[in-house]
Amino acid sequence: MRVAVTGASGLIGSALVPALRARGHEVIRLVRRAPAAPDEVRWDPSTGDVARRVGEAAPVGLDLAGLAGVDGIVHLAGAGVGDKRWTDAYKAEILDSRVQGTTTIARAAAALDPKPSVLVCGSAIGYYGDTGDHAVTEESPQGAGFLADVVAQWEASAQPAIDAGIRVPYARTGLVVSSKGGAWKRLMPIFKAGLGGKVGSGKQYWSFISMRDEIAALIALLEDDRYRGPVNLTAPTPVTNSEVTAAMGRVLGRPTVLPVPAFALKVALGEFSQDVLGSQRVLPKVLEHDGFAWSDPTIDSAIRQAVAGD
After folding, report:
1. DSSP string covering 170-207
2. According to DSSP H, which parts of 193-290 are helical?
3. How high is the pLDDT of residue 257?
4. What is the pLDDT of residues 108-133, one digit of tens each?
5. Domain assignments of the chain as residue spans, ordered by start
6. Residue 22 to residue 15: CA distance in whole angstroms
7. Superfamily of domain 2-307
8. In the 8-state DSSP scheme, what is residue 246?
9. Nearest to residue 281, comparing CAs of 201, 208, 212?
10. For the segment 232-280, what is each residue's pLDDT rounded down to a tens digit?
């Protein structure tokens, strides 16, 4: 397949691109700067605009000529949820980067001739909100909160592709266990120094996935025609933060006796602390039903893989 990838330089995208190439796919990377390599195409996701047909210049957005002949698209671009403190301005950036970027790529996919067969749209388990001890699946309703609202609008922005008859799976990704980015990049040095501990009560569920399982699942969504609509990309065994803490201690061989009080997180992270302290017990019902084989079904295995460099 000829596959276009947005967010190719991000944590997940930078692992996905070589994995796709290893499977024999040709990869086109969409970048927001001037292209510096033959496999790069420039786009501006901030407006949702695309050229109306191949060969017509797009003053903003995306020129369809760069996507000509693409069989599939994996859309991963978006501002990092935990990269900055949640000011009103950054919350707007989180939302806009997802809605505008998805609108741009969905409209581009719909306008291509021939059209790609699939648009894998990045998404997140934030859709379910705080679920407490209650397990949720792809059939569960939208939860409450800022991230739940963001994910709902994010996914809805792919509608132009669906209307054009393109298969659109939503990859609702959990917490990716990786030493190269995300929450675990911050956790690893702390735990290696013997300063790690549970966060808040420690009873909140963290629905995780290892990087290699994340990549394998994204490839499955791209290649397998069975997948459309929401698909939870999480391991089949969500664990509490206390269990994560104990696993970090076991794998790293370090003590884990210094808890992080909830009030300290609220001071340090502001509104984002609600999501760190919140609980999401998410089950990957669709992947399990279709026989997906996890390389790292347990938190210990996922952490060991991250320590080994993913």
Report:
1. EEEE-EEE-TTSHHHHHHHHHHHTT----BTTS-SEE-
2. 211-223, 241-252, 262-269, 273-277, 285-289
3. 85
4. 999 999 999 999 999 999 999 999 99
5. 2-307
6. 11
7. NAD(P)-binding Rossmann-like Domain (3.40.50.720)
8. H
9. 208
10. 999 999 999 999 999 999 999 999 888 876 655 555 455 555 656 689 9
